[in-house]
């Protein structure tokens, strides 16, 4: 399938990464931001990416957006490997993907009204225009006469969201959309995002530090040290076994089971694995 066919299909994109590695080279030093990310997001699913600062969330988002090519691994969107797209195909893929990165509001046309911003961003069909309009209506900005530079931050973020969903993307990638909003503003923006994407069946991947924001998505994925460490919902977290067989221990266990601890791994039953500390190490504790 070509990127342009993908853009005209309806519903959400299936996203799958396999062993994605990304290394930044800074003044001759390598910084491994992603160390083998295996991720599966079903069409129409809304997923939050959480994790400490520096864990690789924004890098993963930029790789999914086609803004960076990973150093290794595959980034499969509807089965096509974005990491291997030609420049032309990558350009079309980026254009068809909804993006709301940090500071997205600063890329709006500040001298135009919200509705004008949405109209100028339009590249798709008449139906697509509806998605952007819907967000403006939900934010009470459809008939707003003020230009974007005169709106408060919440209004500007709502316009940035409207522009991001404007062309009915099958995949919407969002980075910290609510970080500078108060609780009410945050909830309004998320209401608009969930409503617009739910109706269209859009797949959403959202980076956030805020558990309350993450709870509005259907699944939370936690990154640590450039890998997916755990996933689940607020009260139900599961460690994720990587394609290389590795498992990250929950953060709270690291104090008693520090890196370098050696353990025997025993299958207790079909549903249970036990970790047994080596005898001489437990004596040293
Ligand atoms: N452009 C860059 N050049 C060099 N190193 C980078 C660059 N961007 C990120 N890094 C490094 O890559 C690692 C992952 O960064 P990234 O921004 O993806 O993490 P993050 O989880 O999104 O962090 P935050 O929550 O603070 O935004 C960090 O060590 C960071 O310093």
Brief write-up:
This protein has 285 residues and is an alpha/beta fold.
Detailed description of the structure:
- It comes from Microlunatus ginsengisoli.
- It holds the Pfam family ABC_tran.
- This is ABC transporter ATP-binding protein.
- The chain is an alpha/beta fold and 285 residues long.
- It has helices spanning 3-8, 57-64, 87-96, 114-120, 126-138, 153-165, 183-200, 211-214, 279-284, and strands spanning 15-26, 29-41, 46-50, 72-77, 80-81, 98-100, 171-175, 203-207, 219-224, 227-233, 236-239, 263-269, 272-277.
- The strands form 3 sheets. It has a 7-stranded mixed sheet, with helices on both faces.
- It is elongated and about 75 Å long.
- The model is unreliable at 1-8 (pLDDT under 50).
- Adenosine-5'-triphosphate is lined by residues 24, 26, 31, 33, 51, 53-59.
Percent strand: 25-35%
- Class derived from helix and strand content: alpha/beta
Determine the number of helices (DSSP H or I, runs of at least 4 residues). 9
Compute the CA-based radius of gyration.
21 Å
Weakly predicted, low-confidence segments = 1-8
What global shape is seen?
elongated
First and last CA, distance: 57 Å
Helix content: 25-40%
- Averaged pLDDT, please? 87
Let me know the number of strands: 13
Largest sheet: 7 strands, mixed
> Could you spell the SSE succession in H and E letters?
HEEEHEEHEHHHEHEHEEEEEH
Distinct bound molecules: adenosine-5'-triphosphate
Strand order of the largest sheet: 6-7-8-3-9-10-11
Strand and helix layout:
Layout: H1 3-8, E1 15-26, E2 29-41, E3 46-50, H2 57-64, E4 72-77, E5 80-81, H3 87-96, E6 98-100, H4 114-120, H5 126-138, H6 153-165, E7 171-175, H7 183-200, E8 203-207, H8 211-214, E9 219-224, E10 227-233, E11 236-239, E12 263-269, E13 272-277, H9 279-284
Parallel strand pairs: 3-8, 3-9, 6-7, 7-8
Antiparallel strand pairs: 1-2, 1-4, 4-5, 9-10, 10-11, 12-13
The structure holds adenosine-5'-triphosphate.
